[in-house]
Structures are given as C-alpha cells and as structure tokens.
Amino acid sequence: MSAISLVPVSEFSIGNLPVAANPPMSYDVTLGTPTAQGIVPPFTNLAASIYEINGVGPAYGWNAALGAWKQI
Questions:
Q1: Is the pTM of the predicted complex or chain greater than 0.85?
Q2: Cα–Cα distance, 47 to 50 (Å, whole number)
Q3: What is the pLDDT of residues 38-67, one digit of tens each?
C-alpha cells in the first residue's frame, strides 16, 4: 500500500517547504472594479488575477509592488 496526501490548489511545495499562492478570484462588474469593491488577494506580496464572475467585465492582475489591481 502507498499513502496518498491531497494538497489544496492554493498550496504547492518545494522540497518539504510549503509555498503559498493566491487562489482564483472573481468579482461582480455591476458593483464596480475590484478596487472599488475593496477586494484584496490573501497574499498581497504575490501575483494574483481576478476575473468577472460572468465573463462580461475586464480581468485584472495584482501588482504586488504597488499593492493595486491593474486591468489586463
């Protein structure tokens, strides 16, 4: 028998060290931009992207250096 361990999509490992990553994110364009809605990725020092929940609005990427969303 072999052991199987499941790792959440938001975690990866390098050797024995876990490395965090931002999860997939979405927003509602009818409520404004991600900035207007106050959406911030969990790990603000890492890259992130956010997509409109229905696919009708623009996508944004997180600029970790500026701490802000930028339309992509």
A1: no
A2: 11
A3: 999 999 999 999 999 999 999 999 999 999
